[in-house]
Request: fold
Amino acid sequence: MKGDDYLPGRHFWTHFWCGLVVGGILGARIGWGSFESNWAKVGCAAAIALAFATALGYWGDPLWRWFVEHWR
Reply:
């Protein structure tokens, strides 16, 4: 058994979509407290969600572990 049981390419997308959801929640929380405009809140949430999802898709499990350890 190798280090990854995922099919080639699927590992990235699994982390990407999970990161998009978590990043959207995190971005909404940050945007809600930072901006008055609803469009700015949505833009902040979308930007953070995409950045978070891309980073998690690229770095995967090590970044999840780091995030969980530092979120406490």
Remarks:
- The first helix runs from residue 10 to 34.
- The chain has a mean pLDDT of 86.
- Residues 27 and 45 are 4 Å apart (CA to CA).
